[in-house]
Amino acid sequence: MKITVVGPGALGSLFGALLGRAGHRIQLLDHQRPRAALLAARGLLLEENGRKERVSILATTEPAAVAGSDLIFLCVKSGAVGESLAAIASFLSPSSLLIACQNGIGHLEPLRRLVPADRRSVAVTAQGATLIAPGHVRHGGSGPTRLGVIEPPVPAVLTQAAGVLTAAGIPALVEGDISQAIWRKLLANAAINALTALHDCPNGHLAADSRLRKELSQAVAEGAAVAKALKVEVGSDPVADVLAICRATAENISSMLQDVRRRRRTEIDAINGAIVAEARRLGIPVPVNERLLQAVKAREGDFG
Ligand code: PAF
To answer: Other CB atoms closer than 10 Å to residue 235's CB: what's the count?
Structure first.
C-alpha cells in the first residue's frame, strides 16, 4: 500500500517505522524543511525492547505528495489539524482514506468540515510512543488501536487498514461506535496527561500517590458525567479503567508531559478544554477539569 503519515511526532514516527518495516511504501509529510531533509537522508530510528533498527522512508514537505495514497495517517497534534487538513484536503484521491489519530475531540470538527465523509475516519490508539529526537522513536508498549467513522457507513478500506496495521505489529480493530473509544480515551487523557504534566511524573505515580489518585478520580468522574449526558457509554467504572491505564503504562511519560518538558504547546484545549466546553453547554459542573485546564494553560504561558 502507498501510505502517507502526516506529522513526524512520536506517534507518526512510530506508525511510519512499523509500517515501513512491514514493507509498505511510506512517505512522511512534514512542514519543517530541515527535519524532512534529515528524515529523507537517515530514515527513522525505531527503538523497541532495547533494540534499535533503522527504517527507510520517503520524506517530503509537499502537501501534493499525498495524492494517490491509499491510507493517510494524520498524526499532527490536535491544534494543527485544521491547518494540515486545509493543506492536503484538495489532494485526497477518491480512493484515499484519511485516518485522524489525535487525542481529545478537538479534531472532529475540522475533520467533518474539510474532508468528504467517504474519505475520513478516526483512530484511537493505546500505542506507547516517545520521541527521543527527530526521527528517533521509542516504542513503549502496545495496546489496541480502534478505528471507526464519525458517521456510518464504515468503508471497506477501513477493515483493510485494520489488517495492515495489525500485520505491522499495531493491533487494530474496527469499532461500530467509535465515540465510546474516543470518550474513554478522553477521560484517561484528561486525568493522566494534565496531572502528569503539572506534577512532572510518570503515569504510574498517579495511581501510587493518594492525593493525586483522588484528583484523578474526580477529573474522570466529572468527564464521565458529561459523557453520560451526551449518551456516550464509558463503562461501569471509568475511574478503575483509568487507574488500570496508569499502572499498565507506569513508566510512560505522557504526551502532555513530553510537550511541557520540550516547552511546546500542549493538547489541553482538545482534552480538558473540550470537556469544560461540553459541560458548560450542558450545565454540568466540572471544577477539577476547569482547574487542570487553567493550570496547564498557565504553565504554557511560561514558555513565552
Ligand atoms: O497521551 C498519552 O500519553 C497517552 O494517551 C496515555 C494513555 C495517557 C499514556 O501515556
So the answer is: 14
Q: What is the spatial distance between Cα 304 and Cα 122, in angstroms, rounded to a whole number?
A: 33
Atom 3 of ligand 1: nearest residue by CA position: 254
Q: Quote the pLDDT of residue 1.
A: 86
**What count of other Cβ atoms lies within 10 Å of the Cβ of residue 5?**
32
Whether 77 is catalytic is no
Amino acid code (one letter) for 122:
V
Ligand 1 within 6 A of CB of 103? yes
**Spatial CA neighbour of 180 closest among 126, 231, 246:** 231
pLDDT-derived band at 154, boundaries 50, 70, 90: very high
> 130 CB under 6 A from ligand 1?
no
**59 closest CA partner among 94, 28, 91, 15:** 28
Task: Please give the sequence-ordered ranges of beta strands (E in DSSP) within 157-246, or none if there are none.
Answer: 172-174
Confidence band of 303 (pLDDT split at 50, 70, 90): confident
Q: In the 8-state DSSP scheme, what is residue 94?
A: T
Res 248 pLDDT > 90: no
Give pLDDT tens digits for 158-190. 999 999 999 999 999 999 999 999 999 999 999
Atom of ligand 1 nearest to the CA of 258: 3
69 lines ligand 1 (CB under 6 A): no
What is the atom index within ligand 1 of the atom nearest the CA of 253? Answer: 10
Q: What is the mean pLDDT of the chain?
A: 95
Q: How far is the CA of 254 from the centre of ligand 1 (A)?
A: 5
Quick one: pLDDT at residue 65? 96
Q: Ligand 1: which residue has its CA nearest to atom 1?
A: 255
Domains and CATH numbers, the chain: 2-176 (3.40.50.720), 179-301 (1.10.1040.10)
